[in-house]
Amino acid sequence: MIYDSAPLRVRQFSRDALTVIDQSGAPLFRKIAEYRQYWTLFVFLALRDITLRYRQTLLGVLWAVLQPLLPMAIFTAVFARVLRPSTGGVPYWLFVLAGMAPWTFFASAIIMSGNTFASNHGLLNKVYFPRAILPGAAVAACLLDYVVTGLFVLALVSWRGYRPTLEWLLLPVIALITTALAMSVGVALASLMAIYRDVKHVLPFLVQLWMFSTPIMYPINLLPQPVRPFIGLNPMAGVVEALRSCLFGTPPDWYLLALSGLSTVLIGFAAAFLFHRLEADLAERV
Amino acid sequence: MKTISVRGLTKEFKLGQQRRQYRMMHEWLTVRRPKQAAHGAGSFLALDDVSFDAESGEVIGLIGRNGAGKSTLLKILARILRPTRGHIELRGRVGSLLEVGSGFHGELTGRENIFLNAAILGMHHGEIVRKLDEIVDFAGVGQHLDQPVKTYSSGMYMRLAFSVAAHIEPEILLVDEVLAVGDAEFQKKCMQRIEQVGKHGQTVLFVSHNIQAVLRLCSRALLIDQGRLMQAGPVHEVAAAYLSIGGANQGERIYPEGPYAPGDSVARLRSVRVRSRSGETLATVDLGQELGIEMEFEVQDTTLPLFPVLSVQNEWGTEALWATDAGTEWHGRTRPAGRYRVIAWIPPNFLASGAMTVTAAVYSLTPRVEHFREVDALGFQTIDTLGDGTARGDFTGYIGAATRPKLEWTVDYEGRVTSASPSRMSAPRSDHAV
Fold first, then answer.
1. Which residue of A has its CA nearest to B116?
2. Which residues of B touch A48 (CB under 8 A)?
3. In order of start, what are the domains of chain B with their CATH numbers?
4. Which among A190, A172, A35 has a CA at the least distance from the CA of A110?
5. Which residues, other chains included, contact B302 with Cβ-Cβ below 8 Å and sequence gap of 6+?
6. Where are the domains of chain A?
7. Shortest CB distance from B91 goes to which of A2, A16, A195?
8. Is the ipTM of this complex over 0.90?
9. pLDDT of B301-318, one tens digit each?
10. A17, B92: Cβ pair inside 8 Å?
């Protein structure tokens, strides 16, 4: 365990490091350097979340697998007959599970990280650390579940007779993009919730709405024509689409992926802007 | 080496900003907020043009009344709050201890909490691993290290939290008085640790409205009142100034009605004053006079036997006097609800001269609970005039003792010294020779 292994390698800051504090706050390069300095805190916050999630649970990490599995079972039972969706030859339950895996990660990551500023009010008021560590670590803590679920889905896909292809090498990249997206949305939500607690109440509905507007339990061709070109604006649609295309070898919808890529970048900038507006006064306003 | 340099530091808090935010979400999202908000009537200056420097190896006390701006200053130095104006330069790593046990979680084991808490305080993994044994030793949690801290006794919990805090080694350490809560032993450990840190060439900024602690630890002090730096200099001068601005209110202090006065649901402090037999409030007391320390408190819980305690400290932080109601009919008894006035009468020619502060407290003993303990509730001056009747007699020099009672002093004159004693002295000398 990390608690008594060899030290992580961390750059030691010099004894004479000069910190200047004024109204304008620290320059950007300094802030970024600080995140490296606080790497240890990031790791231990994430470890704490993971430890707390599974301590005193009977099933432990098995929950990571069950979480996408249970809604998948429900959707399959309800929709497989009713919709009779054309999934390009992929069994419907597997089709749903491949979408559910990234979605479960994304949803729990944004809910966890969205709450971090509001719920760590005391900590923010008593200790200094680079603030985005809190939502960042919350997302990182969900990553373990994502990896476990991902491996489980891969096992099922192989079991159903799909052979590993070169495209499977892209799966970690997709996971990374999902993580970056979750961090952006998490930081933005945390910043908003720090000031408007309304966000806390809106969040569950938002997540639900977001799930239904992501092609998880339905293929994109089931969408009405006027909506279809815009579905890529939902970056999670891109993630799910890319993932399925890698797993099942279906041809990807490049237009949709490009649109998702663009909206991911835009969300990243929006989150950075929101966070930057709030950061220096976070303790005062949260 | 200069480690802290603060110039023109100003912090303005906007009142009622919250409500404005809720109403005008779009305003928050726009790049510039309207200017009138910053200078409107709805703001107050928590810090107003504060400048000072600190050298390495200095332990500096930051004193002032509640709400004077001490904690705000500390939070700005710790980068928790942003200054409104001004410029600060800090040389070296900054560690802040505004509370102990930040981020502690009951479900985590002692070891896990050490790592997390140390990381929150800015320690790196390598450092934590290196100091782990030391921290565990200092805390004395031993075999409980891998138990969840929810199973710890509160004493163990505090010891663990403090021992992590005690092992951060920044060049600049900011300490708030929250550290001074806890039992006496714990406080002593805190104080010793802060003293040590100063001796190792680190700079310590120590916030307190407890004059005693500041006097004991610091060589220099800053006095802050209503956001302004009133005085900076040798700690005794600053402490005297603190008392004179009524840092501890002069002669009499009346606490507001309701929950803001020190106390809990059992007993609550109402007022403290220094008085004469005839009932006048005294801010300056001639030592030749008798004086009474009076405390009024309210009792709501009638099931606990209450112990009122009054103590007096001198300007060196030495406890000159401690008194309770032993010997009265109320001692160790439960009390009917209501208001009580207790007075400890100090006989003439007992205390030494100087600036004194009063600490007023009420405890119950089984179990030991502190209902309130108001440190520096009150300040008063004691003076003495020369001549007959005073305990100092004709001596005009400085007396450093905490008390200077006029004792019964007996003198027996035994006549002239005879030659008996030299012969006794010679005996051991001859032994030695053999």
1. A44
2. 103, 105, 108, 112, 116
3. 2-7+49-244 (3.40.50.300), 252-383 (2.70.50.60)
4. A190
5. B334, B335, B336, B337
6. 2-285
7. A16
8. no
9. 888 889 999 999 887 778
10. yes
